[in-house]
Amino acid sequence: MDDHAQLRRAAELYAVGADRRDKDLWRQVLAQDCVIEGPGFLIEGVEANLGSLDFLAANFRATIHRVHQCVATIAGHEARGETYSTADHLSNDADTILVWSIRYQDHWRREEGAWRFARRKLIVDWEETRPVTPKPGAT
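The structure assignment produced for this chain is given below.
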């Protein structure tokens, strides 16, 4: 797999890890000193960032994160780029989803042969809330 495919794969594993609340997946793609920043938050270090999965579990019945385009410039063991995503968040208290249209400003670092996020800045371009009909067993 070439470097660009590996960078995209890191974004995909991050998304799946968020949806499954899978801390082991996030450990595979987050650098020990990673920083994740978004609207109203800045979290430093892999262990602190794993707490975001607990936040998702406590605040939403389910999520679906999709990775769209991922573009990056690679220079040695560093890469910088932008990843477009859409994240659906199924509300705990109503049959609605909160949809975020996201652009991540990404900084990856190759560590021990794997690309990991050193920094992700989550930019929400817009959001919408809409009704849904959850299916039994789907969440």
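Interim note for the steering committee: The first strand starts at residue 30 and ends at 38. The chain is about 30% helix and 55% strand.
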